[in-house]
Specification:
The chain has helices spanning 4-14, 32-43, 64-77; strands at 24-29, 83-89, 92-98. The chain is α+β, with helices and mostly antiparallel strands and 124 residues long. The chain has one domain. The radius of gyration is 19 Å and the shape is extended. The model has no long low-confidence stretch (mean pLDDT 80).
Length: 124
């Protein structure tokens, strides 16, 4: 269990907002399966293990502003997009749920990129 002093240091170091307000909503220990996944990712951070990526092509012209608004609603409604995994003590990684997160969305125009017509990833 994380001591009160260790929790205070964690909050002060990582999760104080610009106004000094605590941004943490909750702190949870990892369950066994999460611990295993966490350790695998720490041991091989660029392996791509446990990463799921979905590529889709929208029907019609995409509305980037609508996507950003809806993604913000998802962030506000669900804990997972606002959860960070931290190693607060050597033996105890934790899940820290933040109250508010601004996950950036990158927008790229690949309209004229080679490979688009063949459903291939464009060359960058």
């Amino acid at each position: 269990m994380l001591s009160r002093e260790a929790l205070k240091r964690l909050i002060a170091a990582l999760y104080l907002g610009p106004d000094g307000a605590v941004r943490i909503e909750a702190v949870y220990p990892l369950i066994a399966s999460q611990q295993g996944m966490y350790l695998e990712c720490v041991a091989a951070p660029h392996s791509g293990v446990h990463i799921e990526q979905i590529v889709w092509r929208p029907l019609g012209a995409p509305d980037a502003d609508a996507l950003k608004r809806e993604w913000k609603r998802v962030q506000n409604r669900h804990l997972a997009p606002r959860t960070a995994f931290v190693q607060a003590a050597p033996s105890e990684p934790l899940q820290v749920v933040l109250r508010d997160v601004d996950i950036p969305i990158e927008q790229h125009d690949w309209t004229d990129a080679p490979g688009i017509e063949d459903n291939q990833e464009p060359h960058r």
